[in-house]
Amino acid sequence: MVKILNFKDIDSKEIIKAMKAGAIFIYPTDTIYGIGCNANNQDSVNKIRAIKGRDSDKPFSVIAPSKKWVYDNVVINNKNYIKKLPGPFTFIFNIKPRSPTKKINKGFGSLGVRIPDHPFTKLVQKAGIPFITTSVNFSSQMPVRLIKKIPNAILKKVDYVLDDGYLHRYPSTIINLMDETPTIIKRRM
After folding, report:
1. What are the φ and ψ backbone dihedral angles of 38, each rounded to 5 degrees?
2. pTM for the whole thing?
3. For a Cys-Cys bond, which of 30, 69, 137, 181 suits 118, CB 3.0-4.6 Å?
4. Could you tell me which residues are beta bridge partners of residue 113?
């Protein structure tokens, strides 16, 4: 049964323990609500793909637990972009050859990385794990800015909902940093 909590009243120890264990969360970011889990737990990652009705040819991004984690796991051609984090960006990087993150999006040599400017990120940092981050909606539907707008078919399949009220922003700007010249893939609306 889903546990719906006001973000301001959460027990951070409970949330961090649940994150590490692979619980599926709906959570606030500096942009919109996301759905995610411990990116190292493949069963949970697969559940999120099923919940969203998302094809396996569409990769997931992660909230990085630290900038050090980013440097350790992906190829960075321009460090100036890392200085923009935390913020409303998703940066697409090539994955380093020995990075365990290759399991997140099998068949892809890239990974989208975020560090949202929101207190939820501190929980991910304390858990010390990469955390799947994708909009909480059915694939190809509009993103959600208010918990009561989330379809029941999604709500009943998650473990925790962290409600932080209405989020008045737009989805993150996605920038491809895999080549020498950065390319904006999707701009904030």
Report:
1. -60, 115
2. 0.94
3. 30
4. 62, 91
